[in-house]
Amino acid sequence: MEFLYEYIYDEKPENVSEKVHQNRMNQKKEIIKTAFRLFGQKGYYKTTLEDIGHEIGITRAALYRYFSSKDELLFQCHKVVYEFALNNLKQLQDIQSPSERMTKMLESHILSYFHEDFPLSYPTLLSLSSFPEVYKNQVKEYRKMVEEPYFKCLKDWRCASPDQLKDMDDRIIINTFFNAANSVPRWWDGKSDPTKIAKNVVAILVDGIKHVSS
């Protein structure tokens, strides 16, 4: 999960040397990486801070230097994934054709699950119900930020092709897209080419709304 490390970074305190700060950040990244793996393997509820600490050779007390609770650690896992997703979406916003932009955004969304530990970490993203309200609200805000480019794309689509999507509700479209895309790690056979899977799933989704609205 090294490709996610750029999304895990804290500002260096003034009274801490660069070397000490980097060591702390490396440790924090290792904790988050291990949490992803164990939450995926054992589930959030069955994974303890002791389990995570044991995997990387530190005590539960040492973990508290980085995270106040398992809930905060779960939030940080969510935060890393959403920051990664937002960065991917930002790079696709210059695509002029709304249908092509939608296609590329959805393909990118699905393919993100096939980066290193992502298929295994998928259960981590289903643990929102266990969050205290403060973290739950922050995750909801991240979800809104991820959804915004999709809603904008549908708006652009309607402007570019007024005869399409006339009788379709944007929320229904977006929920259907995400439900289908997010289910891919559940049924992937572990062998099929992820790029081909993404293209096939997205073609069904995007061509489907064109067909329904025609």
Topology of this structure?
Elements: H1 18-42, H2 49-56, H3 60-63, H4 70-90, H5 98-112, H6 118-121, H7 133-160, H8 170-182, H9 184-187, H10 194-213
Protein name: TetR/AcrR family transcriptional regulator
DNA-binding region: 48-67
Domain HTH tetR-type: 25-85
The major pleated sheet works out as:
none
User: How far apart are the first and last residues' alpha carbons, in Å?
Assistant: 43 Å
Q: Decide which structural class fits the backbone.
A: mainly alpha
Mean residue pLDDT: 87
Helical amount: 55-70%
Which residues form runs of ≥5 with pLDDT under 50? none
Number of strands: 0
- Number of DSSP helices? 10
Computed CA radius of gyration, to the nearest angstrom = 19 Å
InterPro entries: DNA-bd_HTH_TetR-type_CS, Homeodomain-like_sf, HTH-type_Tx_Regulator, HTH_TetR, KstR2_TetR_C
Pfam families: TetR_C_24 (PF17932), TetR_N (PF00440)
Domain HTH tetR-type: 25-85
Protein name: TetR/AcrR family transcriptional regulator
List keywords for this structure.
single chain, 214 residues, mainly alpha, 0% strand
Verbal overview:
InterPro entries: DNA-bd_HTH_TetR-type_CS, Homeodomain-like_sf, HTH-type_Tx_Regulator, HTH_TetR, KstR2_TetR_C. Residues 48-67 bind DNA. Residues 25-85 form the HTH tetR-type domain. This is TetR/AcrR family transcriptional regulator. The protein has 214 residues and is mostly helical. The chain is built from ten helices and no strands. Helix 4 packs parallel to helix 7 and helix 5 packs antiparallel against helix 10 (194-213). The chain is elongated. The protein starts with 17 loop residues before the first helix and ends with a helix.
